[in-house]
Write a structure and sequence with these properties.
The chain is of the alpha+beta class. The chain has three helices and nine strands. The chain is globular and about 40 Å long. It starts with a helix and ends in a 7-residue tail after the last strand. The model has no long low-confidence stretch (mean pLDDT 82).
């Protein structure tokens, strides 16, 4: 138990030094902005977090099943050929909290993500990609069957 306390104190001390040096302030601000998007109760409010309007793009590929038999675990993958993609946002239009996921894409990596989303009903999956300081979007409809019967 004494070892855990020492580790906690060391971690807290290191964290305090980073805050004082200003190393993590930008990330903290971004985290607070993104959190307000996750708390939004409708799509319009969730999209306000992005700070602009996204233009439709054919350079974003969304892969979801046309009919999902289990709305609790709908597989979704997103990729884009947009140069300089730095952020990928996933929204599920009819969910109680539409913002479903945010991915920060490190420089010089392939902008492709995969996850599983929860969908309460048939709805659109909206993807917004920030690339080169601009916003681009694509949408794909996914139908969710009741009872998981596939029909």
């Amino acid at each position: 138990m004494d070892t855990n306390r020492r580790a906690l104190l060391k971690s807290a001390g290191a964290f305090g030094i980073l805050i004082a040096a200003g190393v993590i302030s930008a990330e903290a601000v971004l985290a607070a902005e993104v959190q307000s998007g996750f708390d939004a109760k409708n799509l319009a409010d969730a999209l306000k977090v992005l700070g602009g309007t996204a233009a439709d793009s054919k350079d974003i590929t969304i892969t979801t099943p046309d009919i999902a038999e289990n709305g609790a675990v709908v597989p979704v993958s997103v990729s884009t050929s947009l140069a300089g993609a730095s952020e990928i946002y996933l929204f599920v239009e009819k969910n109680p909290n539409p913002m479903a996921a945010v991915f920060m894409i490190p420089a010089d990596t392939e902008p492709m993500v995969q996850t599983r989303l929860k969908m309460g009903q048939s709805t659109n999956v909206l993807v917004v990609v920030k690339a080169g300081g601009k916003l681009y979007s694509a949408t794909k409809e996914t139908k969710v069957t009741l009872g998981g019967c596939g029909g």
